[in-house]
Amino acid sequence: MSRAEARIDLEAFAHNLTVLRAAAPRSQQMAVVKADAYGHGLLPMARAAREAGAEWLGAALFSEALELRAEGDSGPLLAWLAAPEDPWGEVLEAGIDVGVSTPDHLERVAATGQRARLHLKLDTGLGRAGCPPSNWESFVSRAKALQHAGRAEIVGIWSHFTVADDPRNPLNTVQIERFHAGVEQAAALGVQPEHLHLANSAATLSLPDAHFTLVRPGIAMYGVSPGVAMGTPQELGLRPVMTLIGRFTTVKRLPAGSGLSYGHQYTLPADATVGVVPLGYADGIPRNATNVGPVFAAGRRRVIAGRVCMDQFMLDLGDDPALEGDEVVLFGSGDEEVPLAEDWAQATGTIGYEIVTRLGPRVPRVYVGEDR
Ligand SMILES: Cc1ncc(COP(=O)(O)O)c(C=O)c1O
Question: Domain 242-368, what fold?
Fold first, then answer.
């Protein structure tokens, strides 16, 4: 019995992909598995996504995409976050599509001598990666010249939303309009790629005008809501994939007035049973969950008592019975009193994405829900 584990429910994951497919039935699906599949484990989730029918996988780093290829994934795969010193040649040789945003990216492609499959990224308003509309024509022209020379195939035009988790925000419409304009400009230059893609999870679920030929869901596949305005996972028909569990390593009685953890930021109001949970900020538990992080333990919902330490935190269990080795659920299904990752996000001032993605490598991921 390990001290802690993140239980990853592959059946819930497959269910969520089905929900996303139903939301965008005419589009291909790119399962976004960057950042160790948002903390769920790159390779098992990539395999599960392919098994659930995802035509594409999406990675950020070249190293993530190369890891997928090294493990035998040979399907359509896009990587979009490249540093100048990254192995462009190796990536292109491995048949990985690359997202490109700047003339320098195109020069790096040209310098490899490889034939590249390119997705030209337009910045429609996020202000992150992507070619600004003012440079778009010259960028597309340069990519077209590479294509003409047999050095590249322009497979896609794409962009990324800023506020899709707020579906009624007018900026979504502005970004869709800018995207159409960029696609039309490219077409006027004779560039009409097979794929146009803009939608993340939130847009896949709520902005059909943004579906185009391919959607790129990430967070919703993992059963986490893209944002408060979108509703809970249950309201979206999603099932949380990750359940984070710790097991009490110490259970003991302490008298009223005892301070708990560094700085004594919690004092027992009465004689109580104290449970020590072996998960801390080294595992990705936010330190600002001190006195606010919700857990399900010894039969009911409670909050962390005192400071989150590097490897541990404590609970005031009152007079409820508990044994060393008993499970404590930090977040999971959201059923009954079990918290959601979203509850942790709310308690600690962040988003559900960060709660699952920050879970550290010391916590084993245990895959359940399918025969593997
Ligand atoms: C370019 C790109 N596309 C798609 C996604 C998936 O977004 P989400 O997890 O909100 O579905 C991300 C993640 O941030 C991204 O960076």
Answer: Lyase, Ornithine Decarboxylase; Chain A, domain 1 (2.40.37)
